[in-house]
Amino acid sequence: MMRTSNPALNDKVFATARGATRGDLEKMTISGTVNKLGFLLLILVGCACFAWKSAYNPLEGVTRMSPLIWIGSIGGLIVAIITVFKKHLSPITAPIYAALEGVFLGAMSAFFDAMYPGIVFQAVFATFGTLFALLATYKSGLIKVTENFKLGVAAATGGIFLVYLISWIMSMVGIGGISYLHGSGPIGIGISVFVIAVAALNLVLDFDFIENGEKMGAPKYMEWYASFGLLVTLVWLYIEFLRLLAKLRQR
Hints:
Largest sheet: none
Shape: globular
Helix content: over 70%
Order of helices and strands: HHHHHHHHH
Number of helices: 9
């Protein structure tokens, strides 16, 4: 059995899609998935530029978080959930998700860059540097995607999600959340480094399952779904790099 900690990409997704469309002539390919990921990234970057300009006042700079952050984050979450449960709609929902996440990331990045100039470029460089480095490592066979590897990454990802959820609930009820998650001390920085490492390993699992999707003969629309799943991981990785760099600037 194959597993992945990315909820958008798992063995059941590809097996179910293949079984539901046995008569399809066109099948999922890695090159097709890469092309669609590139298209989604173009949408995300374009919307991010729009949100950045909207959130930035030439006279005052960025003095507070833009409402676009909430519009993009909540809207993106809703569309992501729809995509996961209605994967055949991914040719429509994946571009919408990319647009909403672009709005979210653009507004949020403008706020962070106003506080720490240059931090956005550093986070983008780190994100794509990690993507290409892990892709090269995966293709070279230096990382073996074994069952234990998959289970370990899945468990770590689930644990991170649970801790983030508890912290969010605590902050919502006025308790203040888990201070170490946001602190700039050694523990806070160590936590960020660990989360980035787990997010990066999720990229390896994404590569593995996209490759398996082609081998299993998944239908063509799964290219959109697979590229959506990879984009989810990239967005997470970028946010974590942004948070880590902000903590380092605070020291």
